Amino acid sequence: MKTELLAKTFTKDEEVLAYLKNDYHSYREYSVMRDEWKQKFMDFCIGKKTLPMMYDAFFKRIFNPDIHSERLSSLLSSLIGEEVRVKKILPLEDNYIDGARMMVMDIIVEAEDGSIANVEVQKIPYLFPGERISCYSSDIVLRQYSRLRGEKGKDFLYEDLRKVYTIVIYEKTEGIFHKIPGKFIHRGKVKFDTGLELELLQEYCLIALDVFHQIPYHKEKNMVTGWLSFLTTESLEDAEQLLVDYPWLTEIYQEIASYRENPREALMMFSDALRELDRNTMQYMIDEQMKQMEEQKEILNEQKERISEQSEKISEQSEKISEQQGELTEQKHLLQEKDKELALQGKRNEEQEQEILRLKKLLGEN
């Protein structure tokens, strides 16, 4: 029965290809895709794989707040650990008060209590994760502030502002996420070291899916495990097992199966996902190159410092050598003077000896 929910409309790649050839634009879109992505698309269409949910295009389709707010509400509630009921989706792009453009984000929603959640799905472990989530969170606070100031005008009060949640789901993470064994969800907010209790607006929830996969969760059947397993499951067999463990996923997998009946629509999602991946990969490469440049710059600076230190030492040694040479020259002059004095004294002694001999000779004659 579960396999029927993942029903296959096409059974061979050739059948899908023949279907696409009936539409010039679809076939052209397929033709320019990389071979790896052509295979991903075909595996989905013939029922070997489900949708790869960790790509923005698929995540946004399945968790579209305008259509399935209850799905996103359930996901956010399980991740944050508090009940969240999504009310509406907010613009992904906005302006500051002075007209400057803000950053574009994945999904931003407003809950019924007025709180705002930004959901980011990241396949690539970008550099500086702490700095990035700080920017995401600050950006949303400013958007909320700008919007409420515009709506309320002089009646605006800071107490009108509601909490801002930044949720980032990482498919792959950097080493810092692996230093805490067994922990794949990290929830945090600012606290003061004195115990001062102030309810600040910004809270964070970071999910490391690669850490989640390192621990056996087959015994733990809960909403968090169900949702995270859904996000990372691509094989048909694993999807069927998920439906056994979490039957509430049935509606979602029925929707996924429906896209197999219309490969053109599925193709557009795969194309969008590939374009987004290319952009993200390019940004990641730029970040990596910038990091390497900074590292090389630090190495060069260290080498310059060492060379400078060595130059100073050489200069000091040269000064010492110069001083020693000066002392040696002075001593040489002194020795030369001593030699002259000794030579002169030797000459005087010789004259005195001759004079003594002459005097002795005179005495003998007398």
Elements, N to C (H/E): HHHHHHEEEHEEEHHHHH
**Mean pLDDT across residues:** 82
Spans where pLDDT lies below 50 across 5 or more residues: 94-103
Structural class: alpha/beta
Report the β-strand fraction as a percent range: 5-15%
- Estimate the global geometry from the Cα principal axes: elongated
Helical fraction equals 55-70%
Strand order of the largest sheet: 1-2-3-4-6-5
Q: Assembly state here? A: single chain
Outline the structure in words.
With 366 residues, this protein is an alpha/beta fold. Helices cover 58% and strands 10% of the residues. It has 12 helices and 6 strands. It has helices spanning 2-5, 13-21, 24-31, 35-45, 56-62, 69-80, 129-152, 209-212, 223-232, 236-245, 250-259, 263-365, and strands spanning 86-89, 107-111, 116-122, 164-170, 185-189, 202-208. The protein has a 6-stranded mixed beta sheet. A hairpin with a 4-residue loop joins strand 2 and strand 3 (116-122). The termini are far apart.
Descriptive keywords:
6 strands, 366 residues, single chain, alpha/beta, elongated, 12 helices
Short structural description:
The protein is 58% helix and 10% strand. With 366 residues, the chain is of the alpha/beta class.
Task: Compile the SSE list and pairings.
Layout: H1 2-5, H2 13-21, H3 24-31, H4 35-45, H5 56-62, H6 69-80, E1 86-89, E2 107-111, E3 116-122, H7 129-152, E4 164-170, E5 185-189, E6 202-208, H8 209-212, H9 223-232, H10 236-245, H11 250-259, H12 263-365
Parallel strand pairs: 3-4, 4-6
Antiparallel strand pairs: 1-2, 2-3, 5-6
